[in-house]
Amino acid sequence: MIKLNVGACRKVSDNHYGSKGGNVNIEVEVDSSLVGDSAKLQAHIRHLFELARRSLTEELQASNEPASIENSHHHDGANLNGNGASNAVSVAPTRFATEKQILCIQGLARKHGIPVPELLKQAGVRVFNDMSVRQASAMIEGLKGSSAN
Fold this sequence. Notes:
It is built from five helices and four strands, in the order ββαβαβααα. By secondary structure, it is α+β, with helices and mostly antiparallel strands. The protein has two domains: 2-88; 99-148, no CATH class. Helix 3 runs parallel beside helix 5. The longest helix has 24 residues, at 38-61.
């Protein structure tokens, strides 16, 4: 048996001072006779890469709701390796505020004279790193809006 492992990764902007990304890796075992038929082996590898890319694209185009283990996708590999083993596609958990978001919030707080502990309390977190990308984005928009007043 030969073990094949292919993967794809991508990172895209979420247009809210952050980004989301994903990695998909597929590992299968195939019959070692494919080594003698390079065209079939390459076709098999291309098929696996296409499956990984398609799965990743679908995942990144899904809603912006935080992903969890419960809603991760699993693909049955029986048609690929004949043993019925599944090939899991992993999904990243909740995305936390990015460094750029945190720096932006801190700068806006300084500009408006708002104490950082007050902002953290409003967000219901102990530290900025506990905020989600969405929370941070909403806070930035709120702070920007207060400068228009």
